[in-house]
Predict the 3D structure of the following.
Amino acid sequence: MSEAQIMRYQIPCLFLIVFWSSWIALHAQEKVPKKNIEDEIIRVDTELVEIPVVVTDKLGKPLLNLKPANFTVFEDNKLQEVTDFSAISAPFEVALLLDTSGSARSDLQLIQRSAQNFINALRPGDKVSIIAFKTDTKDNRAVSVTEVLTGLTDNRITLRAALERVKTSNGTPYYEGLLKVAESVFNEAPKAEVRGRRALVALTDGVDSTSISDFDEAKEMLERAGIITYFIQVNTRDFFEQNLLGDCESAIRFSAAQIRRYYRVFYANANIEKAANFCQLGDFERLAISKKLYELAAAEMNSLANASGGKVFPVGDLSDARTAFKSVADEIGTKYSLGYYSANAKRDGTYRKIKVELKGLPAGAQIRAREGYTARTN
């Protein structure tokens, strides 16, 4: 066959191949449902909702090696599609908030050792940031401030050095500490491997004495950032009240911020005489205020922990903190993370309830998960 003849055969064949390939590609495009394109648009407009969960058997032992098929997620009773899943081996990012005010000031070394043991109990790859309170000078007066001693790092030498720099504080800017975690430690969007795997672990009694900010503001920011919250709740009430009574100049006293908070929260609309300073309070009223402030602190910690899928670990004193820290580290090491794009694409700022159910697991299996979230507005 001549070269010219070969060319006459090749050209039509080449044309048919190109035509056939184009037709297949066009036909495939036509087969793509419009719904998928709409789904992609919706996903761009909606946020990924992250749900950290812990699953245990009937004896409370963590269940390992679970798969996405073991979970069903509902938002406001509507089934959602789980699109993201992280097993317990995925790394965690932890903000460790240490309250060294009040009675804790005499146990600084105990706090540092307990925190170091907690860090040692975490897994390689888990990152930690350390935040603490200290006393500073402003306008020639002592003030309590929150200090980020180190950002998120898995360098254990850096973390040990940061713990050695923890100082004591003459006041408790607890709410500002919570805000600092949201604004400074977790101020950037998480990388894919730690989505839904960020936690706050706070050693505190939860009784704020100096913050200008309030709890609701801090809670909103932490919930919006999807932070799991754990509290090692130290019981300092006995120590505080033993030194609360008697001469107002020598007694431990409520701060002006605490007195204002007490009347605002518990007697906002009451027509009663409100004390302006500590020395106007009698012993009976001092005890009443103390009782209410500690009850408020406990309620706030439980509210934030339950909503985020975390937990409160009450301890009698700081000597028990080491065991509580170990429990937190163990739980962090057995957390799964689920993620879904809400079928409700509205940005209306409403609170949406989350419910996670288990499938294909032994009878008695239990789950603790995030209870809900507030949708973005714009």
